[in-house]
Amino acid sequence: MYEVRFHGRGGQGSVMASGMLAAAMVEEGKYAVSIPSFGFERRGAPVVSFLRMSDREIRQLTNIYQPDCIVCVDPTLTKSVDIFAGMKAGGTLIQATHRPLAELALPECVSTVGLLDAVKIALEIFKRPITNTLMLGAFAKTTGVVSLDSLKRALEDSDFRDAGLAQNMTALERGYAEVAVHQIERRAAA
Amino acid sequence: MTTATLEKAAAAEAPRKQKVILAEGNEAAALGVALARPDMVSVYPITPQSSLVEHLAKLIADGRMDADIVDAEGEHSVLSVLQGGALAGARTYTATCGPGLAFMFEPYFRTPGMRLPIVLTIVTRDGITPQSVWGGHQDAMTVREAGWIQVYCESVQEVLDTTVMAFKIAEHHDVMLPVNVCLDGNYLSYGASRVEMPDQADVDEFMGEKDVNWHVALDPLRPMAVDPLTGGTTGKGPQTFVRYRKGQCSGMQNALRVIEEVHADWAKRIGRSFAPLVEEYRLDDADFAIMTLGSMTGAAKDAIDEARDAGKKVGLIKIKTFSPFPVEALMKALAKVKALGVIDRSVGFRWNCGPMYQETLGALYRLGRFIPSMSFIGGLAGADITVPHVHRVINETEALLNGAAAPTEPVWLNEKE
Amino acid sequence: CSKGALKYITTANIYNEVGDWEDLFAPGLAGCQGCNTELLMRHTLRRVGPDTVLATPPGCVPGMGSVGFNGTTGTKVPVFHPLLTNTAAMLAGIKRQYKRVGRDVQALAIAGDGGASDVGFQSLSGAAERGEQMLFMVVDNEGYMNTGMQRSSCTPYGAWTSTTPVGETQRGKTQDAKNLPLIMVNHRCAYVATASTAYMEDLYDKLDKAIAASKTGFAYLHVYSPCTTGWRFPSNLNMEVARKAVETNFVMLWEYTPQDGLHFTKPVDDPLPVTDYLKAMGRFRHLSPEQVEHIQKKVVENQKFVERMTEHAHVG
Amino acid sequence: MSRHTSYPLFNLEQAGVPDDLCPVATVVSPMLPGDWRSMRPVVDRDKCVKCAVCWLYCPVQCVEEHAAWFDFNLKTCKGCGICANECPQRAITMVGEAQ
């Protein structure tokens, strides 16, 4: 079982990203479940979405409390939300940010980090800070648990209006290409 | 044999290829509805049902579903429109929850009395007040004595498959009763999961001929008065009333058999089987059991596996068909254990315990045995019922087995978190 | 030619046309002696014909046995009790399904004012807004007469009912009636009209138009129907009371279509004083001069209000 | 829609519909309210001009046409007296049933 928690703000499409990622995993013949958090998902308010992946049928339909991976599609969110709560040791963080790794305060549990200046790229592509598909590309590259091709097929099956599909395809590819992946060497616990 | 008949023969034996997709529970319900080919759906949005009717509207707008959609001005009219449609021969469907179901109650109670095989998905939501827009079984539980068949789903796949089966169950001539497919608001309604889509041709063969108003119709070519006054408080009046009311009860009891038959037929034609009434999980050699309903069951099964690995002899009993209450099937399961913990996602106000717990005590009485038992209430208003929660239920039920006194009050799982 | 002679001719015309059409209700219904509603029902259903599904929500219409009692039916066409609250919605479902399968079936409601203007208003308004194809007839006897003459929102000011009794501090209803047909005009229904059984040729004309309109949209027919029992007047005077209501402008006969707007069909230019109407029945016997004055004022006000609507009829 | 007579009522037994499903009725009420009457309409055949006004306003529609006059089916006439009140020829008189 591989568990991912998405953090974002209402309107940024983190719930949709979780669903598209699950669809991509299903494309690959895996089992996946995506569950959104159930708050008032108003534009700008912090939102959470959960994703489980497994080679076997997934029975649990619950929130995720100890994720293997955290995808944070908003660069400002860490100020208001403890996005690392419950994260497993040796976990992976995919973070939208323009900062370099050295400037980030990361807890001990984080071992792999994928950093992407998603807002900047989103403004180039969409003229709006929609970072979700960019972050999916970054997720694929950083974790390797899903292929870029599967994500593309999941996007094709989604309900985008007009130019939306082409733009999101570009975003997915750029996220994959431009993410900076870091491994953090942790000393073994004393 | 010609090639065509050979192919046909082969098709009858094995289900056709099924497309694998990711769908949330509300979408799966809508897809199940489309597979059953209703003539009429009537809708009014309400959280957490809204995306279900949005999916239906889109399926119809895209021409993927050939049904008349009536956007009524409220749930009361939604069900009333469908009653009219059914009386004119339409296969009909809607979905609602919580306050919408409450508003619908007047035609809701009347639907089984007219023996109209309407299918209504309850995307379960906790009862207000206190104000909540989140999941919980209180709405469906509150109307459990209104004469509808009520089945609860565990997974998104079960939502899709059960939605189709619900029409077949409702329209069976020995049943002729409306069916609620209950799917948990939030965890099932919005939970997206891998599902396999049955082939339309397989479903068409499964459904067979449609004939929903053979017993009552509002049709100028078959004039009759529908639901005249029964005839007063003396003489034949009460006898007439009793005859019809008893008929409703017979239909409910017949449903227990028909639900099993329909699930068996589905397994044969579509290739997926679900426990129709009561599911027993790792129960055969269990000393004690926990009981679940709906989407909490998945986490509970994982918890049972872990507890088994830790040497606890615990099994699980899941109720799928809650109304009619599957007394015989439940008695068979209960006979295997010596202590019981029941998790309800709603409250039974009168007995200060979960309603499923209270109903289960009735089955134990029928069985003629006393075993220590406990009522657990959790998952109200969208709260999560997690594997650790279920471990607590397992541990406290196990304590009963070891002689601990059963509390007279329910255990509220999410009280202090 | 005298007014009277013209009346014979019109009556004879109606009789010659529909006199041998079958009365589609059972010969015996339990309406009160001289029941205006029973008269209206029988004429209406004969006119509409047997390819009809009839909805009669709880009230005098099924109360007199049209949906039957103890295993019998009072109607020769398919008939049912909707709930008091859902008549228009149930009929909509029926009509939609017949339309879907290509059958021409008339959906007809004969509902009381309570079931239409009060508790049934939501479903009525919804069906009208959606343009459901039906003929919705309201029999306005200005109260819940079947259950013992309680007040409805169509009960006029000052009227005694069993829930607006005459006592020391309150003398009849203290509010004015809701004008349901005008509210239906504001739904822009395919057809809306008011009618009275005292003007049967006008009623038949409107029935024809309403039936035609119901083929494409929502047709609403509001019929003022005096109640001998609830209003307290002798049964033989029913038509006189109905006529007086029109002659005093207490009620007005008009029709509306989206194409032609609203116009009077029986304009009363020189109305009798409203007291001529009020004194014809017992439910207004207790009225004080101030109450009578209020009613007369309202009659004039209502008349002017509808008249202004006729003036605005052709803006489109 | 040009049909003006009813279709035969549905036969439940023939259709094999059990009598404990939806409450329905397929037999027309045999009730005849003629015995409610305390007064009965009597027609002066000489005065009747067959204008049909009585037919138009009779709530139970019990008016029957004869060769030269209209009369009433007393099995269903409830004796309300509207006909006598409305007859332009004053051809109808209400008389007590006891007479």
What can you see in these coordinates?
The complex is a heterotetramer of chains A (190), B (417), C (316) and D (99). Helices cover 32% and strands 23% of the residues of chain A. Chain A has 190 residues and is an alpha/beta fold. Chain B is α/β, with parallel strands linked by helices. Chain C is of the alpha/beta class. Chain C has helices at residues 3-18, 36-48, 60-63, 87-100, 113-118, 121-130, 180-185, 200-213, 228-231, 238-247, 274-278, 289-311, and strands at residues 52-55, 79-80, 106-112, 134-140, 191-196, 218-224, 254-257, 261-264. Chain C starts with a helix and ends in a 5-residue tail after the last helix. The mean pLDDT of chain C is 95. Classes of the chains: A alpha/beta (190), B alpha/beta (417), C alpha/beta (316), D alpha+beta (99). Chains C and D meet through α1, α2 and α10 of C and α2 and α3 of D.
Mean pLDDT of chain C: 95
Anisotropy-based shape of chain C: globular
Rounded Rg of chain C: 19 Å
Query: What is the element string of chain C, with H for helices and E for strands?
Result: HHEHEHEHHEHEHEHHEEHH
Helix content of chain C: 25-40%
What's the number of extended β-strand segments of chain C?
Answer: 8
Please give the radius of gyration of chain D in angstroms: 19 Å
Domain Pyruvate/ketoisovalerate oxidoreductase catalytic (chain A): 10-177
Keywords (chain A): Oxidoreductase
Protein name (chain A): Ketoisovalerate oxidoreductase
InterPro entries (chain A): Oxidoreductase_gamma_subunit, PadE, PorC_KorC, Pyrv/ketoisovalerate_OxRed_cat, Pyrv_flavodox_OxRed_cen
Outline:
Chain B: Keywords: Oxidoreductase. With 190 residues, chain A is an alpha/beta fold.
